[in-house]
## 1
Amino acid sequence: MTRIIGVMSGKGGVGKTTLVSNLGVSLSQGGKKVGIIDANLSGANLGLHFGLISYPTSVHDVMRGNTSLTDAMYKHPSGIDIVPASLSIEDLDVEPSNIRQQIMESMSDKDYVLIDCATGLDRETMKAMEMVDDVILVTHPELPTISDALRTKTIAKKYDKNVLGIVLNRVSKSDELKKENISAFFDLPVIGVIPEDHSIRRSIEAKNPITLEHPKHQISQEIHCVANYIMGKKCAQKRSFMDKIKSFFRK
Ligand SMILES: Nc1ncnc2c1ncn2[C@@H]1O[C@H](COP(=O)(O)OP(=O)(O)O)[C@@H](O)[C@H]1O
Ligand SMILES: [Mg+2]
């Protein structure tokens, strides 16, 4: 049975799209069939993470009822199917709609469909909320971002969605708020702790998610943990030789 998982946050720029692209790859590396959909209609950029720049059909066309979801799906060499959103400002007027039925029909071969959601609680997010079974919340370990994410959790619960947990992104050693405090604050497990690392930006520029380019990188290992959590497996972190050297010198 296909599970539709929404990756959401209260604030923008916290790392939702980066997580969706890398988590999609990681789940696929774990042997699962994966689709990812850009539901950030007014801030589309999921396709760019995979080098998809120009494409004849997008999720916007699906929402307009002009094309089928299958025709808006692009197969990436990693094995995942990507449904990008349009980058054109001409398409900004599209009315967000709930395409759950199409997903269940056209992506029924998938184990997981990840939805890259818009930010906050506007109509795009609310339509995405209706589509999903589960929600993952992404936040930075800082109070204003956490408090916005908490609002999203409250709405997800109101919609009777299963909130899987929190992914903390851009974490650094100097952060005041620790994983345990944040978990208690949300009353949810922290299912991923992704450090601040410039390699993320490099991989985005290379149009190649870091889990594909460097599957053993510390960031990739953290994302594999999130994937394992979703798949109901234990998280076994394998650190690369370089990571071991780096942490030796950090001591
Ligand atoms: N762990 C990280 N370390 C460093 N930079 C990051 C990290 N995660 C994301 N970024 C940067 O933050 C930017 C915004 O991330 P993005 O995934 O687009 O956020 P959102 O989808 O929530 O708006 C990215 O372009 C990337 O450069
Ligand atoms: Mg985004």
## 2
Amino acid sequence: MRACPVCGNTQNQMDLWGMSNIALCSVCGLGYVKHLPTLEELAAIYAADYWNGRKAYTDYLADKVGTQLHFQHRIKSLREFSSGGRLFEAGCAYGFFLELAQKVWTVKGVDLSEAAIAYARDTLHLPVEQGDFESNPPEPDTYDVVAMWDTIEHLYDPALAIAKSAEGLRQGGYLALTTADLETLLPRIQKSAWRMFIPAHLHYFSRRSITYLLEAHGLKVVHFSHVSYYRSLRQMAQIITWNKPDSAWRQRLQSAVERLPFMNTYIPLNLYDLMFVIAQKQ
Ligand SMILES: [Zn+2]
């Protein structure tokens, strides 16, 4: 079994909640897949239906309004710490965050997905590059903010990503990230049925393990909260039937919701299992 990628521990690793493919580190509490997928397997995971199917996002482009509502909240929180300068986003996807952030910061972004980057570059005219973050890191000592929304859990080497992010920050700059929080109520209840257990997620953090990793790279946590996501009724119906994609019950619920006139109204939904962390370079 591979060592814990956060603390290096190789001892007493257990299966997380009886899942034979995910280990739980007995030292820092990180959950991580025992065998990393190959590049070919990853490419299959991120094929076109990743953004517009039922593997991760049901229709990422159509949900732009809701996605930007929660990004507005992230920006409001960030502005309490940084009022401008340069911002780098790792895993910028279609550029929905950068489109808003460019009103405050001079922005740059990178993402692995060619389809997403093509949209961010050609439709939103954002300065973004296609590639993996580990080979396209921020330039050293350059940025006031490095942002990583729901990205670290996807990366092969989260420790390297945090190291590269810390390197890219100027002294006193901020790393801001969101990721699922394993040590909260909902995953403890739902166990292997938790919606975060998808093939694209390779690492499962908690407040404990993310703090451990950030501090190891000279980053001090200055903000910690559990944040909501804006969801439409249509999305909520999809979320609660997540594990039953082909059931008749899901089809009936979906078609009932589709008929509601307010199915696309966005409502903030906080399941207290998504953490928002801001850490400052010391
Ligand atoms: Zn560990």
